[in-house]
């Protein structure tokens, strides 16, 4: 085994795996990837459950992008199953398309009123407009305000309270803007031109990406046991390491929580296998007005796997991350105050000229898979141009 490395990557999710491949293949570097879990893929990891059903262990992942570069890059490591994600909200037993769109409008209001509201919406905004719930609520027309209040009450406020412990006004506006009111009858969750599920699942995609003669992956290794950061110098196994170090874990943890803990939300997943072919109308159903969980995902509908007679579903419960062993920080809680705390850690990292922070955790951002893959590609563009 090669024991001399000239690039160190911590973490093997999208950020770490794309960066490792780029540094090895395009940059000709010998790359060591340290991953503390027993598998690659980070939160996109999937595997068969004990009933033979392909599940996403850390929550449902649907690939979608408008970035041709990312789609072409990942397509080197996987084929795709055509899949367009559709979500409905369970509103007192009725299934309303989410994002709330013109079809939802006609389900929510009586026929003539809905037709009038549709006309009003289309003249106030425009066909196919994506209107955030917060901006719709600022509309002064009393009838449009009524639509806004309906959507706020039946789609956003309770779900957001469950997911974040805060109201839509209290959280980062970019978060609810991810799911706008859509002035069209397009009932897909995403409108990106490239969408799909990796043909054999996410884990094989990562395995292929990391399968390169200049990449060594060590699983079950917490980088903090091998790495030390002091006086602008990064040490690996006690020796100064001068090559690029691409770190994709939590930045507060990297610096031993010197300035305190960055807040995150964690999730508890409740998996259940039922003896039916199909459980619910769409792969994901959001519970926007009732229940303690936010949503239920039925995996066979996502992956297209054919298994007659049984199906695995998963409920998601969100709560504050406490840092206890085994808990995973899934979502950065983005706010001006938390961003300022993050900034202090980023400044500390800036004292190490070969350290690069990359990913949802290390950058304390709400990246989708495609966005972090693109960030990894452009970070490596920059490193390799130097
Ligand atoms: P991660 O996937 O978190 O990978 C970081 C890796 O670093 C982990 O494997 C971790 O074990 C490792 N690590 C951390 N610290 C250390 C250390 N000290 N030593 C060694 N290893 C370490 N995006 C979409 O595009 N579509 C979706 O449908 C979608 N659904 C999602 C659903 C949920 C519930 C969640 C939480 C996220 C979802 N995402 C989705 C976002 C997606 O998960 C992220 O964009 C992606 O995982 C980010 O990759 P990453 O490499 O930055 O982080
Ligand atoms: N959201 C909501 N109701 C829904 C769907 C989304 O209130 O039915 C809000 C909620 O605040 C959520 C945010 O919109 O956190 C972003 O939703 P998205 O589905 O993009 O979150 P993801 O699960 O992908 O992180």
Automatic annotation (TrEMBL):
Molecular function via GO: flavin adenine dinucleotide binding; UDP-galactopyranose mutase activity
Leading EC class: isomerase
Membrane-crossing residue ranges in chain numbering: none
Occurrences of domain UDP-galactopyranose mutase C-terminal (ranges): 155-366
Entry EC number(s): 5.4.99.9
Gene3D superfamilies for the chain: NAD(P)-binding Rossmann-like Domain
Keywords: FAD, Flavoprotein, Isomerase
One Pfam family named in its UniProt record: GLF
Co-factor(s): FAD
One Gene Ontology term, aspect cellular component: cytosol
Sequence similarity: Belongs to the UDP-galactopyranose/dTDP-fucopyranose mutase family.
Protein name in the entry: UDP-galactopyranose mutase
